[in-house]
Design a protein that fits this description.
Layout lengths: L1 H53 L4 H8 L1 H22 L4 H10 L1 H10 L1 H20 L9 H10 L5 H23 L5 H41 L1 H6 L2 H35 L6 H25 L1 H4 L3 H18 L7 H42 L1
Helix pairs in contact: 1-11, 1-12, 1-14, 1-15, 2-3, 3-4, 3-5, 3-11, 3-12, 4-5, 6-8, 6-9, 6-11, 6-14, 8-9, 9-11, 14-15
Organism: Streptomyces tendae
Keywords: Membrane, Transmembrane, Transmembrane helix
Pfam families: DUF475
Length: about 375
């Protein structure tokens, strides 16, 4: 099971490390290995959240996620995305931007770092909306009940998530502008860009998330009708339309997953510059890490881990909330990537431990109930 799920990741790791040695020797090997570990540690919460969405898809769409999805994740976000940032920031053509990335690495790093506030605003808002919509929803299973119960009651207020997200964005942009004024106003014009990028992140979430949710609900309705009128539906050829609708639902959930992965990858791409400004090594290291995140997602789905450890999804969403706030803070202040990675690991680790304790309590309660039944039968 492990080899089947992680086989491609192991193969890509071997090829990536060999390519690193051929490209830049053992120093490059070390850099790529470090970048891979960085990406995995920063994106573990991504895998847990992805698994919650991916388990609703059939085997076909899971394969699409692992094939086309990984091409988008590795080449799109880890290789093309930084080049696009440079092209837009410096108003260069794609070929010139690639040439700059390969020939003038310091200038390339400077341009990507310069664009970080806008990237952080977009990704931060997208992730913040995921977190807010999760904590404001009333759920049967609650991890931190003392916090989640009152938040679920507040969640009954319409558009509360959007209002809070916009307030957070406004505070971030105003703080950025105020600090820019104090330091000579060099970044005052960028405060507007931060605001626009954050609103773009919010709109992206609402469109993609809204469409995936709509088609998912439609799919559930269709499945209920199909179950009730199975024979009639078969005669009228309705299974075909149900399959088409499932395709739409899966497509928009797949699109949502890709945007989610993009938002998670922002901190990894930016954090990678603390280790190297070589675009080739960056793509190799982050690409290997992205493969493991994808494989881990599928592993969690096939093992039913989220069903067995019910608080894992809660921990992952709290980690998303923390990452969202970290991204928004990094618009103005620098935060070490180790802190970013550790926050997610600690929250997910705590939720896993809570799940283990819960399972143990349930098992003990069932054992006591069985003992009482046996005693009663004996009497």
């Amino acid at each position: 099971m492990v080899l089947k799920t992680f086989g491609w990741s192991f193969a890509v790791t071997a090829l990536g490390l060999v390519a690193a040695v051929l490209f830049g020797g053992w120093t490059a090997f070390g850099i790529v290995a470090i970048l891979s570990i960085l990406e995995i540690s920063l994106s573990f919460d991504n895998a847990v959240v992805n698994a919650g969405i991916l388990k609703k898809m059939n085997a076909f769409w899971q394969k699409i996620f692992l094939t086309i999805g990984i091409l988008i994740a590795v080449f799109g976000m880890r290789l093309v995305f930084p080049v696009v940032i440079v092209a837009v920031s410096a108003q260069l053509g794609p070929i010139e931007a690639v040439d700059l990335a390969l020939s003038d690495k310091d200038r390339y790093q400077e341009l990507v770092t310069d664009a970080h506030p806008s990237i952080a605003a977009f990704g931060g808002m997208f992730l913040l909306m995921i977190f807010l919509d999760f904590i404001f929803e009333d759920r049967d299973i609650k991890w931190l009940a003392w916090l989640e119960r009152p938040l679920a009651k507040l969640g009954k207020v319409d558009m509360l998530s959007v209002c809070i997200a916009l307030i957070v964005l406004l505070i971030s942009a105003m703080t950025f502008a105020a600090n820019a004024h104090q330091h000579g106003g060099t970044h005052v014009d960028k405060a507007e860009t931060v605001l626009l990028a954050g609103i773009a992140g919010l709109i992206t979430y609402m469109i993609v998330g809204g469409l995936s949710g709509y088609f998912e609900d439609k799919l559930e309705e269709e499945e209920e009708q199909e179950h009730e009128e199975e024979e009639k539906a078969a005669r009228e050829g309705k299974p075909k339309s149900a399959i088409a609708l499932a395709g739409k639902a899966a497509f928009f959930m797949f699109l949502y997953l890709e945007v989610l992965d993009a938002s998670f990858s922002f901190d990894g791409v930016i954090g990678a510059f603390a280790i190297t400004n070589d675009i080739v090594l960056m793509a190799l290291g982050l690409g290997i890490g992205a493969m493991y995140v994808r494989s881990l997602t599928v592993y969690l789905v096939r093992q039913g881990t989220l069903d067995d450890y019910v608080y894992l999804e809660h921990g992952a969403h709290y980690a998303i909330g923390a990452l969202a706030m970290i991204l928004l803070v990094t618009i103005q202040y620098q935060i070490n990537e180790i802190i970013t990675g550790l926050v997610g690991v600690v929250l997910i680790g705590a939720s896993f431990w809570s799940s283990v304790r819960r399972n143990k309590r349930i098992a003990e309660a069932e054992a006591r109930a069985d003992d009482k039944t046996e005693v009663a039968s004996g009497v």
